[in-house]
Amino acid sequence: MTDAEFAATTAADQPVRLTPEQARQVLEEAMQQPEAEPAALRITSVRWGRTANLGNYESARLDVEAAVAMGGDPVSTLTQLQEWVDQQAPPEAQRLNDLVERYNRTRRELTELSADLENARATWNRVMDVFKALHIEMPKYVSDELPF
Hints:
The chain is α+β, with helices and mostly antiparallel strands. It has two domains: 3-89, no CATH class; 90-148. Helices cover 48% and strands 22% of the residues. The chain has three helices and four strands. The protein has helices spanning 20-32, 74-88, 91-133, and strands at residues 3-9, 15-18, 45-55, 58-67. Strands 2-1-3-4 form a four-stranded antiparallel beta sheet. A hairpin with a 5-residue loop joins β1 and β2 (15-18). The chain is elongated, with a radius of gyration of 29 Å.
């Protein structure tokens, strides 16, 4: 799956990673601040990036940054950046990401099914031990092994 993030900077110049929704909220709140306040935030640029999983522990990252026009809307600038970045990802990369996710999901399911099978074998063996302890003979077509 791709990873989209927005980079912001705190008052102490410490980088912060925000989700797209959090980034929009920060920008909208900043736009609602009256410009007469001396501490009002004036956004001059926005940046958007996306990381694509290429499989085999490899990834590719695309970061873009745009200047916000004087008096412009940083939210619409950010939205334009998001759309542009999304258009740059080739369909094959998205298909590869989907296949990697499907493969990982199937492996998890197989691991769970293997554990279920081991539990079933253990239960079968306990049942067979009880039958043997009670001297109950099983029909010839039933073996000591799990029948599947």
